[in-house]
């Protein structure tokens, strides 16, 4: 649950260019999710995940009808309420090859779609503008104790849109360089328009480094993507890039503090829908406690400053929802998790 106070006080109550927690000045149940899971293990090789979800954050999973190549599939409004729906099998090959098929969690991005495991309550723009879920198959093989390789074949960037009938492909390499340092490289390549010629395929790279040493955490992520436009005169090539840094400190006991500076550069408006350069600075104070066994509650207070510039930039302000470059928010949030893993 969250309550975001927007000092711009927009009449429409919307946080522009935001994919999650996008409603302001009114308390919201941003996400509620229930799930079952069973891991695939050598002693029991079949695994499964099934989950359902609801809340404000799921609204933005359904793409808008424009452009036509991004039109939602039929029953998209129903499918957005499924968080997981997949089965997996661990093959006794080498170090163990796990194959998973169905609705799976996206392999891209450092932050989770769900707020509770993240250092901050609100997600960054770098996370809001990558896939959260994927329809398809995943094959994971541990090359060694410290290096995992995963390959993906999925229906597309937005799992609730169907611009064509061709699959897209992904790769993840995750290397635990030291007990404290992990490097992750994610790649995505596939057709996201009605025309599926190879020259129009989208390429995307997501690079992540995480360092942990109690009581500190430091992580950095950098994204870059490009796509040549099939429907525009001259077939221009669009680009975008983004970066974020997470710094977290477990102060002691139930208290922790996190800070995230970030930027998102979308000069062609391909991803955010507006030609703009975004930057944001987020400071979060958390208090975590367990009132009873198997229950965890995290209360958070968060302050954000966001800035959007460029021909299509800006945030809503006032009764007329005019666009201004700056936005200041104060957020209060409560996360509650109960059950098993």
Give an overview of the whole structure.
The chain has 341 residues and is mainly β. The chain has one domain (2-338): Porin. The protein is 2% helix and 53% strand. It has helices spanning 76-79, 125-128; strands spanning 2-6, 32-38, 46-54, 82-91, 97-105, 133-142, 147-154, 168-176, 181-191, 201-213, 216-228, 237-252, 255-266, 276-289, 295-309, 315-317, 322-324, 326-338. The strands form two sheets. Strands 1-18-15-14-13-12-11-10-9-8-7-6-5-4-3-2 form a 16-stranded antiparallel β-sheet, with no helix packed on it. It is globular and about 60 Å long. The chain starts with a strand and ends with a strand.
Strand and helix layout:
Blueprint: E1 2-6, E2 32-38, E3 46-54, H1 76-79, E4 82-91, E5 97-105, H2 125-128, E6 133-142, E7 147-154, E8 168-176, E9 181-191, E10 201-213, E11 216-228, E12 237-252, E13 255-266, E14 276-289, E15 295-309, E16 315-317, E17 322-324, E18 326-338
Antiparallel strand pairs: 1-18, 2-3, 3-4, 4-5, 5-6, 6-7, 7-8, 8-9, 9-10, 10-11, 11-12, 12-13, 13-14, 14-15, 15-18, 16-17
CATH topology: Porin
Provide the CATH superfamily: Porin
Q: Which strand-content bin applies to the residues?
A: over 45%
Task: Give helix and strand order, one letter per element, not per position.
Answer: EEEHEEHEEEEEEEEEEEEE
Class by SSE composition: mainly beta
Radius of gyration: 20 Å
Distance between the termini: 21 Å
The low-confidence runs, each spanning 5 or more residues with pLDDT under 50, are none
The share of residues in helices is under 10%
Number of domains: 1
Q: What's the rounded overall pLDDT mean? A: 95
How would a crystallographer describe the biggest sheet? 16 strands, antiparallel
Any guess at the CATH architecture? Beta Barrel
CATH class category label: Mainly Beta
Shape: globular
Number of DSSP-assigned strands: 18
């Amino acid at each position: 649950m969250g309550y975001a106070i927007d000092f711009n006080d927009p009449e429409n109550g919307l946080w522009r260019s935001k994919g999650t927690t996008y409603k302001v000045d009114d308390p919201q149940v941003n996400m509620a999710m229930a799930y079952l899971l069973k891991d695939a293990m050598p002693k029991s090789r079949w695994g499964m995940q099934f989950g359902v979800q609801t809340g404000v954050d799921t609204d933005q999973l359904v793409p808008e009808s424009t452009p036509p190549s991004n039109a939602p599939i039929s029953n998209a409004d129903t499918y957005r309420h499924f968080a997981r729906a997949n089965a997996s099998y661990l093959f006794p090959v080498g170090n163990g090859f796990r194959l998973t098929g169905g609705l799976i969690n996206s392999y891209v991005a450092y932050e989770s779609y769900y707020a509770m495991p993240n250092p901050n309550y609100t997600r960054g723009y770098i996370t809001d503008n990558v896939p959260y879920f994927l329809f398809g198959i995943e094959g994971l093989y541990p090359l060694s104790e410290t290096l995992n390789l995963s390959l993906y074949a999925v229906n597309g960037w937005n799992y609730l849109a169907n611009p064509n009938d061709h699959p897209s492909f992904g790769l993840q390499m995750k290397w635990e360089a030291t007990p404290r340092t992990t490097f992750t490289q994610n790649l995505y390549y596939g057709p996201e328009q009605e025309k599926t010629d190879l020259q129009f395929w989208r390429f995307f790279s997501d690079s992540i480094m995480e360092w942990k040493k109690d009581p500190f955490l430091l992580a950095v992520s950098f994204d870059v993507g490009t796509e040549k436009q099939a429907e525009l005169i001259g077939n221009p090539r669009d680009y975008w890039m983004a970066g974020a840094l997470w710094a977290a400190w477990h102060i002691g006991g139930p208290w922790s503090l996190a800070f995230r500076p970030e930027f998102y550069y979308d000069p062609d408006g391909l991803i955010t829908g507006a030609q703009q350069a975004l930057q944001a600075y987020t400071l979060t104070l958390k208090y975590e406690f367990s009132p009873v066994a198997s229950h965890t509650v995290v209360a958070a207070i968060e302050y954000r400053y966001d800035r959007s510039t460029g021909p299509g930039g800006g945030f809503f302000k006032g009764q007329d929802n005019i666009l201004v470059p700056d936005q200041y928010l104060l957020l209060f949030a409560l996360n509650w998790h109960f059950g098993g893993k």
